[in-house]
Amino acid sequence: MVPKPVIVTAPPPPVSSPPNPLLKTAVSTVKTEEKPQTTTLPPPSTTTPKTYPVPSIKTTPQQRLELKRKTNSWAPALMLNALDNIINNFIDPPLKPSVDPRHVLSQNFAPVDELPPTECQIVQGALPPCLDGAYIRNGPNPQFLPRGPYHLFDGDGMLHALRISQGKATLCSRYVKTYKYTMENDAGFPLIPNVFSGFNSLVASAARGSLTAARVATGQFNPSNGIGLANTSLAFFGNRLFALGESDLPYTVNVTRNGDVETIGRYDFNGKLTFSMTAHPKIDPDTGECFAFRYGPVPPFLTYFRFDPNGNKYDDVPIFSMTSPSFLHDFAITKNYAVFCDIQLGMNPLDMIAGGSPVDSVASKVPRIGIIPRDAKDESKMKWFDVPGFNVIHAINAWEEDGGRTVVLVAPNILSVEHALERMELVHAMVEKVKIDLETGIVTRQPVSARNLDFAVINPAFVGKKNRFVYAAVGDPMPKISGVVKLDVSKANERRDCTVGCRMFGEGCYGGEPFFVAKEEGGEEDDGYLVTYVHDERKGESTFLVMDTKSPELDVVAEVKLPRRVPYGFHGLFVKESDLRKAVSW
């Protein structure tokens, strides 16, 4: 008879010692009930240390090698996790509300566990046939409850997908299985420091930098495989569906026939994309081409590139005329140009090493708009135009007028940009319409709405073309969204608010970025539906809303009660049935 393996566990630490750093604090310890309360840190005694079996006479050489690897890494992990606890509790504790997980992850910002495909109940109306496909929303959902500073942007990416077929809906929530997620899930504890919140002083930067270097040296993770979160948005091009985060390569994902979400893997476009890519690529609805860029703290601070309709990448176009690092989160395209905004939010690696934020405002800087031919092979035809006080994080759309002589950009201008990352509740974004005469350099600006609006979308068929209607989220304050409005930007010339439609979600109810789905291809620009997730904080319940964009009050035509709450997040995408079939072989 073969003897059973003996389980060896690490002895529990004495009461007076710091918590055992090998204890796994998974998101299941976070309160994820239907009525979430303020998140609190669980006591170390609620978890148990990871165990490793002693090999029996039946173990294979591969199993013994894996056991040896884990055993050899156990002691370094124990020591490095102890150092991590010292840094989080004594050297750099989360003192500011913007990085205190008890504040950042409160209410419906608290993370949830994964949810397998679960049927939903339609409580009002009926789901229109044009919604057959999947609505997928990305957002941060930390795998482990943070033990130190944590910013809203630091969470692991989770996709909340509502699969719709023949009037029925199924919800599924899955992590994007990034390299970071996978390595940390296997280890049972965090390995990679939070970029937006982990470097708040010179001492903290030195400590976390040394800790990270030690983890790499002991083989706990390999940064060359990517450290991104894929927590920001999604895009469909080249017959692939991508989960995106601008600090890494895209990750291909699939939505299966039954509504499950699968991560296929990190994608480098046949070796042609070696660094990161924006989370906001632009797809030309007529040609199927995709346009993108990356930015960073070292020259070239901006690099532009594009893909053909099949997803084949062209060569990089480095932009050296952008002379300082800028937080360039989004951009726009027209029929012939790509449009970039060099704003007052900058990136200074020296400040970061000295303990400053990785992104900070530069009051002396004059914002600029850069315009380059979208098929450019170099930056020789790049033109820059000063636009004082114009700080854009999210672009809405751009197009050409006057036979290509004028470029028009519509985007929310972030007022009080110095609060954009630290105090988002103080930010006010006012949508503007900016016209640039490419020959004279004259720039004119017109307000579209004075309301606090961001996370705006249009009919995707009008990307890069002149359009009238914009659908924007109402900040109350940001990052909470209390409703959506419909704007008619053609009325900006009349010097009045351009709001032509509005729906507020009601007391205690907050939603996310809307997404426009057309009733049919080639129809009127505003003939379709807005879709979004909405959460009722009083009841602790989440729903999926479908709103008629033709009606002045954006009437609800369908409401789906979700089987559990969906946390607030970032950007979403609707993928029609035919495109889902292209992205995966069923």
TrEMBL record:
GO terms for cellular component: chloroplast stroma. Its cofactor is Fe(2+). Signal peptide: none annotated. Residues 1-54 are annotated as: Disordered. Keywords: Dioxygenase, Iron, Metal-binding, Oxidoreductase. Binds 1 Fe(2+) ion per subunit. InterPro entries: Carotenoid_Oase. Pfam families: RPE65. Residues 10-21 have a biased composition (Pro residues). Fe cation binds at H280, H329, H394, H571. One of its GO terms (molecular function) is carotenoid dioxygenase activity. GO terms for biological process: carotene catabolic process. Belongs to the carotenoid oxygenase family. This is 9-cis-epoxycarotenoid dioxygenase.
